[in-house]
Design goal:
This protein has about 130 residues and is an alpha/beta fold. It has seven helices and three strands; from the N terminus they run H-H-E-H-E-H-H-E-H-H. The radius of gyration is 16 Å and the shape is globular.
């Protein structure tokens, strides 16, 4: 739903989009729907129907079973998308280098960081 909403944003269409997905707490229950047919349809929609230029995908704290999900989805993914995916495991170091620390909420920053932040997660989502 977020991607569909972003599809209406002209800035996302023209400038492109880089995502950082935090998979903390994600369990296999969420991915039970990822069968071959669903994967094929969702990747076709994602790659061919959304008017957004995807420039990068950064995955953080990805679960071990993601390798299995990716094995199902990769045959339906364009090489360009696969090449733009970065798995960071449990380390934010590579993500900080890519984005800079100032764009993250305080919850994603190291305790010794004293620079600017994006605020707290609650503030960003409007709680």
């Amino acid at each position: 739903m977020i991607l569909e909403w972003l599809a209406f944003d002209e800035k996302a269409q023209v400038n492109g989009l880089v995502t950082m997905n935090d998979y903390s707490g994600v369990t296999m229950d969420l991915f039970k729907a990822f069968n071959r047919e669903y994967s094929k349809k969702s990747m076709a929609f994602f790659q061919n129907c959304l008017p957004i230029r995807f420039k990068g995908f950064h995955l953080y704290k990805e679960p071990a079973f993601l390798d299995g999900i990716m094995a199902i989805m990769k045959p339906f993914m364009k090489k360009k998308i696969i090449d733009r995916m970065r798995l960071h495991g449990k380390s934010m170091v590579g993500i900080y280098k890519e984005f800079g620390m100032h764009v993250f909420p305080g919850e994603y920053l190291t305790d010794d960081y004293e620079g600017p932040t994006a605020g707290s997660v609650d503030k960003i989502i409007g709680k």
